[in-house]
């Protein structure tokens, strides 16, 4: 007696994109599939639209799952976290560059001082201010970050800074963070 | 750790310093001589303690010579005006304009990007310690911000202050405590409060003292809870007969006020001194908040400072001003010259409502009328309402708070002065911020539209030497050096007499002049600038002009501007400028 076993696999493929949200055109190709709830999207969307760098804001927030449930304070903290990562990368770069070029000796000292201030003062102050709801101290921290970064970058003469990319990334994030913080004042 | 300067420090009115670090003789020798305020030869040295010497000056004219600027200063001015960093490959930081009122040219920290000052500034310990003040209140080290709970009790003035015992940045906030007999010479005491309860473990923040009839003291302060909610707490002295009020008890039933419905958990802080309600038995207290972007002041009623009822409506609200921090609310006498107890009201009084605006970091106030029966304060001039009109101070100044000095019947004003250098410099210095010299506050009877402030008269006790310059006459475009020897601290009284013929003959001069936007002290006009160059070195590579500028319109009316130009105050590229040129209005 033969028994027939039927395997029947039914795949229901659900639409993976939320239809009510339209993705803005992105400069880089983006392979993420955004499964976002409409309500939370509005906050991220509106927040980023009010920053000077929508792309950076949007991509930074979307790549952190905490952003989906965050209020504006939380979104600010995510940007500051991303900035902290970049600043740490900058410090590693500074350390790797030591001894590479005698022209870099003094600028690297300046950059060490600047990034030390960013990591030891500006970022902790920003995190504290955002967590506790005294945003003006977070604003100070991000404003100072921009100043420190410019000081580091400018200390290289003839614009031959080896840190330009990292400095710019830190700078740009500080501007986005600052504009989000200003929404809380 | 905060300093606990022992009480055995001799109280000697001759000592101008009780809270600045003692300069060792060797430190004095290291201080750069290029500073116009060298400490090389102190006028008087007493047992290794450095004294500041104060001089009185009387001047007639000083005019600035625009062409005398070194080239790099002209470049710096261009950099400021263009607000760009020419040599940087990083995009320039754009200024955020003031969101209301007359533009003050206030910016957030900007990097001046002077292309020929790219060198790391070689800060030394001696250079940074030069920045310590001799008689403005500051802790021995680390971070300070808002003044808290000022009061007078049993012969001592008390000042509490937001303090970080661990570093030179804001965080780990405790209540520092200091006492003084004269508001000028201060002694440090142990912390009054630390963040050690669930209702304040994330911050023992700003608060105010209320002295009840009979002398009982209650302190209301904001705590940040373990859940990161802002609440108001009650504390009181453990021993009221202790003149130093060393120990404080936090009411176990705290918090006494929590954010009401409709108010954000992070928008609820800085309770004021309480005042008596019309019924004479209950007390009223106010604190600031915001609803969307409208700044508001809410009022609570209490009979025992433990149970509170939120009154309907708000004391006042002003749209587009954002969060109101450090609200202050007090009466001034329109007829007399004294300050008034916070509970005073009725004919012959007006009420000042003040708020510190989170949005632009300035303190604003307005005069108005308080109707306690309807819980309403109404400004005399709605065009100059709180947050859009007069500021208490046009410099770097925030979180100010007054108290009633019952000993001398004065209303006294404290204010926090934050730093304008970079955080990197603050970390190197190991400290940040000072308090203003306390000021008396009275109603301006002459104009009726503003208050008048003046440093407390006890500040004059700091003077011990005087130099007078009489009838110094200067031609346009000249700079007259005033030889006063070496000094670090000066108290200057200067009066200027404008040549009457010149003033009358000038039909029109610089209509629309504004210190901030008209190019600062480098910009010469028909009737200005004239004033003082302070904090200047011999070659004028660094200088801070403080000056008047008269503008006159064809209808004959003249306007006097009083300006302070910080754009060339320092060559160090990491000294950032919050306000390039401050414009005071007459």
UniProtKB/TrEMBL annotation, chain A:
It holds the Pfam family PMEI. It comes from the Eukaryota. InterPro entries: C/VIF1 (IPR034087), Invertase/methylesterase_inhib (IPR035513), Pectinesterase_inhib_dom (IPR006501). GO terms for molecular function: enzyme inhibitor activity. Residues 39-180 form the Pectinesterase inhibitor domain. Residues 1-22 form the signal peptide. The keyword Ribosomal protein does not apply. CDD domains: CIF_like (cd15796). Keywords: Disulfide bond, Signal. Belongs to the PMEI family. PANTHER family: OS01G0111000 PROTEIN (PTHR35357:SF8), OS02G0537100 PROTEIN (PTHR35357). This is Pectinesterase inhibitor domain-containing protein. It comes from Coffea canephora (Robusta coffee).
UniProtKB/TrEMBL annotation, chain B:
CDD domains: GH32_Fruct1-like (cd18624). GO terms for cellular component: vacuolar lumen. It comes from the Eukaryota. It is an enzyme of class 3 (hydrolase). It is found in: Vacuole lumen. SMART domains: Glyco_32. Residues 136-455 form the Glycosyl hydrolase family 32 N-terminal domain. Keywords: Glycoprotein, Glycosidase, Hydrolase, Membrane, Transmembrane, Transmembrane helix, Vacuole. The chain crosses the membrane at residues 45-64. Its EC number is 3.2.1.26. GO terms for molecular function: beta-fructofuranosidase activity. One of its GO terms (biological process) is carbohydrate metabolic process. Belongs to the glycosyl hydrolase 32 family. This is beta-fructofuranosidase. The gene is LOC113730173.
């Amino acid at each position: 007696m033969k028994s027939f076993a039927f395997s029947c696999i039914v795949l229901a493929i659900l639409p993976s994109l939320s239809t009510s949200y339209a993705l803005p055109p992105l400069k880089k190709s983006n392979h993420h599939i955004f499964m976002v709830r409409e309500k939370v999207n509005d906050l991220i969307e509106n927040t980023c639209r009010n920053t000077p760098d929508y792309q950076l804001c949007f991509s930074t927030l979307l790549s952190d799952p905490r952003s989906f449930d965050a209020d504006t304070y939380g979104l600010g903290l995510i940007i500051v976290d991303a900035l902290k990562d970049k600043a740490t990368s900058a410090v590693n770069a500074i350390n790797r560059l030591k001894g590479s070029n005698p022209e870099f000796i003094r600028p690297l000292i300046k950059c060490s001082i600047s990034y030390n201030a960013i990591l030891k003062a500006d970022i902790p102050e920003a995190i504290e201010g955002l967590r506790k709801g005294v945003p003006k101290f977070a604003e100070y921290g991000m404003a100072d970050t921009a100043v420190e970064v410019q000081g580091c970058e400018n200390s290289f003469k003839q614009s031959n800074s080896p840190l330009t990319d990292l400095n710019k990334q830190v700078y740009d994030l500080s501007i986005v963070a600052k504009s989000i913080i200003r929404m809380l004042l | 750790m905060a300093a606990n300067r022992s009480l055995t420090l001799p109280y000697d009115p001759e000592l101008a310093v009780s809270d600045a670090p003692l300069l060792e003789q060797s430190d004095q020798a290291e201080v750069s001589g290029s500073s116009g305020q060298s400490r090389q030869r102190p006028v008087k040295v007493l047992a290794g303690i450095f004294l500041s010497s104060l001089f009185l000056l009387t001047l007639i004219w000083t005019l600035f010579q625009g062409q005398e600027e070194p080239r790099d200063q002209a470049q710096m001015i261009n950099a400021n005006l263009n607000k760009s960093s020419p040599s940087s490959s990083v995009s320039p930081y754009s200024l955020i304009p003031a969101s209301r009122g007359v533009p003050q040219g206030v910016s957030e920290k900007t990097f001046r990007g002077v292309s020929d000052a790219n060198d790391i500034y070689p800060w030394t310990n001696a250079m940074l310690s030069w920045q310590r003040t001799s008689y403005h209140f500051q802790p021995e080290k680390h971070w300070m911000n808002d003044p808290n709970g000022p009061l007078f009790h049993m012969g001592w003035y008390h000042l509490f202050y937001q303090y970080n015992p661990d570093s030179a940045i804001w965080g780990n906030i405790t209540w520092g405590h200091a006492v003084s007999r004269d508001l000028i010479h201060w002694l440090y005491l142990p912390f009054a409060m630390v963040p050690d309860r669930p209702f304040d473990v994330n911050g023992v923040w700003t608060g105010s003292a209320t002295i009840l009839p009979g002398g009982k003291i209650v302190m209301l302060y904001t705590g940040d809870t373990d859940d990161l909610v802002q609440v108001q707490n009650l504390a009181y002295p453990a021993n009221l007969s202790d003149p130093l009020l060393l120990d404080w008890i936090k009411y176990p039933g705290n918090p006494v006020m929590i954010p009401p419905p409709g108010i954000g958990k992070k928008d609820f802080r800085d309770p004021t001194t309480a005042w008596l309600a019309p019924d004479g038995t209950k007390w009223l207290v106010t604190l600031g908040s915001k609803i969307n972007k409208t700044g508001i002041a809410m009022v609570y009623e209490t009979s025992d400072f433990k149970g509170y009822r939120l009154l309907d409506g708000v004391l006042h609200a002003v749209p587009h001003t954002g969060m109101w921090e450090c609200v202050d609310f007090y009466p001034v006498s329109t007829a007399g010259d004294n300050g008034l107890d916070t509970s005073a009201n009725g004919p012959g009084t007006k009420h000042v409502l003040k708020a510190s605006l989170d949005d632009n970091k300035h303190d604003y106030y307005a005069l108005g009328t308080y109707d306690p029966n309807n819980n309403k304060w109404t400004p005399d001039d709605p065009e100059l309402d709180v947050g859009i009109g007069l500021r208490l101070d046009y410099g770097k100044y925030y979180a100010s708070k007054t108290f009633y000095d019952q000993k001398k019947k004065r209303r006294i004003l404290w204010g926090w002065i934050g730093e304008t250098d970079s955080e990197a410099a603050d970390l190197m210095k190991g400290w940040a911020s000072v308090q203003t010299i306390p000021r008396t506050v009275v109603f301006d009877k002459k104009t009726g539209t503003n208050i008048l402030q003046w440093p407390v008269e006890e500040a004059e006790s700091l003077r011990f030497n005087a130099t007078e310059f009489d009838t110094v006459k200067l031609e346009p475009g000249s700079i007259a050096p005033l030889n006063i020897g070496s000094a670090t601290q000066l108290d200057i009284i200067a009066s200027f007499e404008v040549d009457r013929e010149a003033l009358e003959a000038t039909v029109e001069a610089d209509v629309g002049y504004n210190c901030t936007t008209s190019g600062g002290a480098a910009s010469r006009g028909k009737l200005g600038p004239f004033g003082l160059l302070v904090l200047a070195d011999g070659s004028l590579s660094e200088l801070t002009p403080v000056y008047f500028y008269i503008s006159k319109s064809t209808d004959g009316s003249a306007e006097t501007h009083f300006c302070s130009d910080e754009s060339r105050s320092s060559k160090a590229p990491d000294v950032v400028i919050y306000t390039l040129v401050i414009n005071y209005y007459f």
